[in-house]
Write a structure and sequence with these properties.
The structure is a single chain. By secondary structure, this protein is α+β, with helices and mostly antiparallel strands. It has 16 helices and 17 strands.
Length: 643
């Protein structure tokens, strides 16, 4: 009779691993779970195997294929550990999330041992005869896929290929798992940060025949839930998980775990794995993450504590970062389209200006014709057609004035004064046209008014003066509008120059000049406010809070209602003190705790409202200021993620 002592020990060891302790004393229990049900990845081991609802690493499909949707970026993970009696357990997993077609995963599992001696009992000599050595191993290839079908709801599946080899015998099997997952990251209320999952294992069970014995791996179903809390203004996270698993050949098993993470770089974990405590932690740096966990995975009479390390490499940008890049590209495209539309509008204005100018020219309305051609040239100074038409308009205007002069000479050739008046009017008319062409309506009006004093009945001068006053008013309004645009763009020097020009043009018109002077006074307030604000902001950003305070105070003297300046002043005063205010009165403490409750529920705007009230009672309290800053950052991040 042949005996294989090491195989018997290995089989006994695996049996003690996967048959619950409640069944060790029972008779007739049949069917063992897969040897890979010990789980993969140090993170899950540290959480007591509670990973069905939030499997956030490269082994996600092992715990729930649909749960791969919580993995934010491409991840490659490696796990290597020794279980017992030289039995090696190795795993390599890769998760590949996409923007629109779901998440893909692939995993390779290996568990095996070598150095098993073939033995035979020799009854005639009562000895054991040893033969050659051989090995026994089991491997699995998993191809996984997950897809979000409704908002928050995802489905997933694993296609498993299993191979077992022992000495000269081998067998292959194929199986299928299904998963369902729900997750809600943002928003507010009780469901914010809540996750749940179901994993049905061996929906189609692998059928394995090693030698003469055929076995089907049993059906297992796991269900779990998780809740994530955000603390410390968004830089700290606390995760609580719980799983329940059922197999047709054993009792229900319970798994509970919790994880605390600081800035997603440092992780601490504690778990309860159906009666055994587990511990673990992890560090992430420069896209690399290493995790460690220790737990018992079997009867302590036979197995020491298991120690497991997992190395994970996070590849590329996360899905949220990729969506942000796409949004930025879309915004750039929108800006390009806006620029194209603005250029098209400019071309339309040029075309329309030429058309209207030609119509005025044909009606011998040379004043409006000149205005239209001047506007075209302001849009396109090199427009040859507008240049030609402007010359023709000037020529026609000169002809009209010469005809008027000729008429005056014919009326009274003997009147020398009339000739001098005629020359004066002609000179002033020409000077007025030069001013009009330059957009200097004030000079044009002054020169034509001087000419009108010599020729009061000149209809052309009367009409040109009237239209020039209208254009002057329009030009002043345009400059006021332009100055306001420049002020909104923080181009204050250019805004001041534009208003100064408008002021010079309004001399003699008290109404228009009063309007311009009012805008200049507003600009003076901005000019005095802005340098103090900018210098204070520069010092604030350099953490020189004490030096920033007088600049913010000066800025508020020019604009007492500027909310951002008041907020920066308050923070600067608090941080400039050698020992900031941290003690709270009872009323302030109650408001602070109320804000924390809103914050943990995801009601960031309500939390901000409560903390602002508390800040009015204690303006320089460091805890309140940091809490408000954290809530504002979290609210901004949430709004970007839910555009």
């Amino acid at each position: 009779m042949k005996t294989k002592i090491k195989i018997l020990f290995l089989i006994f060891s695996l049996a003690t691993l996967f048959i619950p302790r409640a069944l060790w004393g029972q008779q007739g229990t049949a069917g063992l779970e897969s040897v890979f049900s010990v789980g993969v990845g140090a993170r899950a081991l540290g959480l007591g195997g509670a990973s069905t609802a939030y499997p956030d690493d490269a082994s996600a499909f092992h715990w729930n294929p649909a749960g791969m949707m919580v993995v934010p970026r491409k991840s490659l993970g490696f796990t290597l550990t020794t279980l017992f009696e030289g039995t090696d357990f190795q795993f390599v997993g890769y998760i590949h999330p996409t923007l629109g077609i779901g998440t893909f995963g692939v995993g390779i599992y290996y568990m095996g041992t070598g150095g098993i001696k073939q033995t035979e009992w020799d009854p005639s000599h009562s000895i054991i005869i040893e033969g050659e050595e051989f090995g026994f191993w089991t491997g699995k290839l998993t191809l996984a896929y997950a897809l979000t079908v409704l908002k928050g709801f995802s489905i997933g599946t694993n296609l498993n290929v299993i191979r077992q080899v022992m000495w000269n015998n081998s067998t292959n099997g194929f199986g299928l798992d299904l998963g369902l997952h729900y997750g809600r990251d943002g928003g507010s209320g009780l469901l914010s940060g809540t996750y749940a999952g179901i994993h049905a294992i061996n929906v189609i069970p692998p059928r394995l025949k090693l030698g003469v014995t055929t076995e089907n791996e049993p059906f297992v179903i796991r269900g779990g839930a998780a809740k994530r809390f955000t603390l410390g203004g968004g830089s700290h996270h606390w995760l609580i998980l719980g799983d329940v698993s059922y197999c047709q050949y054993r009792d229900i098993m319970y798994h509970i775990g919790t994880e605390y993470s600081w800035d997603r770089h440092v992780f601490l974990r504690v778990g309860y794995d159906n009666g055994e405590l587990s511990f673990g932690g992890g560090l992430e740096y420069a896209n690399f993450q290493i995790d460690y966990a220790t737990s018992r995975i079997g009867d302590p009479l036979f197995f020491a504590r298991s120690h497991r390390f997992t190395l994970t490499y996070h590849i590329g940008k996360s899905i949220a970062e990729q969506r942000q890049i796409i949004d930025e590209r879309q915004n750039a495209e929108i800006q390009r389209q806006i620029s194209e539309r603005m250029e098209a509008a400019r071309q339309r204005r040029i075309s329309e200006g030429l058309r209207q100018g030609k119509e005025y020219f044909d009606r011998e309305d040379y004043f409006n014709a000149r205005l239209e051609f001047s506007r075209v040239l302001s849009e396109d100074p090199e427009n040859t057609e507008a240049q030609r038409l402007m010359i023709e308009t000037a020529s026609k205007e000169k002809e009209m004035q010469q005809k008027r002069e000729a008429d005056l000479v014919q009326q009274d050739r003997a009147n020398e004064q009339a000739r001098r008046d005629n020359a004066f009017v002609g000179e002033r008319f020409t000077q007025g046209l030069e001013g009009l062409e330059k957009g200097d309506y004030r000079t044009a009006i002054r020169r034509w008014t001087e000419a009108l004093q010599r020729d009061p009945q000149n209809p052309q001068l009367i009409e040109y003066i009237r239209k020039a006053w209208l254009e002057l008013e329009n030009e002043v309004n345009r400059k006021i509008f332009r100055a306001n645009q420049l002020m909104r763009q923080d181009n204050l020097s250019e805004a001041y120059r534009v208003l100064s020009e408008a002021k010079e043009q309004t001399e003699g018109d008290s109404v228009l000049q009063g309007k311009v002077l009012s805008e200049i006074r507003n600009l003076d307030r901005v000019v005095n406010f802005y340098p103090n604000y900018q210098e204070g902001l520069r010092l604030y950003n350099n953490r020189n809070y004490q030096a920033a305070i007088p600049y913010f105070e000066k800025a508020l003297r020019y604009d007492p209602n500027h909310v951002k300046t008041k907020e920066l002043l308050r923070i600067s005063v608090a941080r400039s003190r050698s020992t900031g205010s941290t003690e709270m009165t009872k009323e302030v403490r109650e408001l602070f705790n109320e804000g924390i409750q809103f914050y943990n529920k995801g009601h960031y705007e309500k939390a901000l409202e409560v903390w602002e009230k508390a800040l009015e009672l204690d303006p320089y309290n460091e805890h309140l200021i940091k809490a408000i800053e954290g809530a504002k950052k979290r609210l901004e991040t949430y709004k970007k993620e839910n555009k």
